[in-house]
């Protein structure tokens, strides 16, 4: 979905490049921040299985709102409509609030899925099944990257189709991910009886936060409250975190391939012989590399 998001903002919602970039990166920032909340919920309250299930439903709801808000014929989402006599197509412009509500629901759902799925998969293996666990993670990450390549190449083709009286078909482009997410959620629920479900055992983020508060603001010695081992481990974490200080600079540039780079590609000639690369399809090159 993120593949066509910038084009959707600028072409369909008529946002300026600056506004579209702002909302795109706000959405991506939430997608990477909410997993901290999802991990705490899973580890401290309801466990990984329930977190994945509930947040998958939130994710499906967000996808559904995104697809439905792109259907301009629904007056609740519609901002304006115009008709082009020359082409014979309508141009429905949705209200901003529909897509933005959908994106925040998707970001929230992502926060419960991202930190739990891989570790929940690892929970299904015994300590003696190291080889099977290794194969699982290899297949897991291969599937993620293969799906990313396919969706990045295919989704722009879907939004370029003609449907519902318009020259574009964003409802289909957003609806296909929603459809497959519904299937995945139902399959996950059906197979629940066979899963190993480890109860919540606490989250290290909470422990580190408590020790950190005691180190800087506590009236008593943190070693006395939490023990020398936890305090020592927390200090080691801060030393390691120093290594990650430059990382945001890299990712701030890297994620522009889905925003500013797409806008630049939209102003370029994407034709290679008889084949044309759509502006939002140029992202697939990075995935292939």
Task: Describe the protein in words.
By secondary structure, the protein is mainly alpha-helical. 68% of the residues lie in helices and 6% in strands. The protein has ten helices and four strands. Strand 3 and strand 4 (275-276) form a beta hairpin. Helix 1 (2-12) crosses helix 2 (17-69) and helix 6 crosses helix 7. The protein is elongated and about 80 Å long.
Name a few traits of the molecule:
two-stranded antiparallel sheet; mainly alpha; elongated; 289 residues
Secondary-structure element order, N to C: HHEEHHHHHHHEEH
Quaternary organisation: single chain
Whole-number mean pLDDT? 90
Shape: elongated
Span of the ends, CA to CA: 20 Å
Strand order of the largest sheet: 1-2
Sheet bearing the most strands, described?
Answer: 2 strands, antiparallel
Q: Give the strand tally.
A: 4
Structural category: mainly alpha
> Gyration radius, to the nearest Å?
23 Å
Low-confidence stretches: none
User: DSSP helix count?
Assistant: 10
- What is the helix content? 55-70%
Strand content: 5-15%
């Amino acid at each position: 979905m993120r593949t066509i998001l910038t084009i959707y903002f600028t072409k369909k919602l008529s946002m300026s490049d600056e506004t579209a970039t702002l909302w795109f990166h706000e959405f991506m920032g939430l997608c990477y921040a909410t997993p901290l909340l999802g991990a705490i919920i899973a580890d401290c309250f309801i466990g990984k299985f329930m977190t994945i299930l509930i947040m998958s439903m939130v994710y499906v709801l967000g996808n559904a709102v995104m697809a439905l808000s792109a259907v301009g014929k629904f007056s609740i989402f519609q901002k304006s409509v115009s008709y082009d006599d020359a082409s014979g197509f309508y141009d429905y412009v949705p209200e901003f609030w529909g897509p933005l509500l959908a994106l925040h629901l998707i970001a929230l759902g992502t926060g419960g899925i991202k930190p739990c799925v891989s570790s929940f998969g690892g929970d299904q293996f015994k300590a003696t099944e190291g080889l099977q666990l290794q194969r699982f993670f290899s297949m897991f990450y291969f599937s993620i990257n293969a799906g990313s390549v396919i969706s990045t190449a295919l989704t722009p083709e879907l939004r370029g189709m003609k449907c519902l009286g318009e020259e574009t078909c964003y409802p289909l482009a957003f609806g296909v991910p929603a459809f497959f997410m519904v299937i995945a959620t139902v399959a996950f629920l059906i197979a629940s009886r066979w899963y190993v479900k480890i109860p919540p055992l606490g989250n290290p983020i909470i422990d580190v936060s408590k020790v950190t508060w005691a180190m800087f603001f506590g009236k008593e010695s943190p070693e006395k409250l939490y023990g020398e081992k936890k305090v020592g481990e927390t200090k080691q974490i801060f030393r390691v975190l120093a290594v990650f200080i430059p990382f945001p600079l890299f990712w701030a540039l890297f994620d522009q391939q889905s925003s500013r780079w797409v806008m630049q590609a939209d102003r370029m000639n994407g034709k290679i012989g008889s084949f044309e690369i759509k502006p939002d399809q140029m992202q697939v090159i990075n995935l292939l590399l």
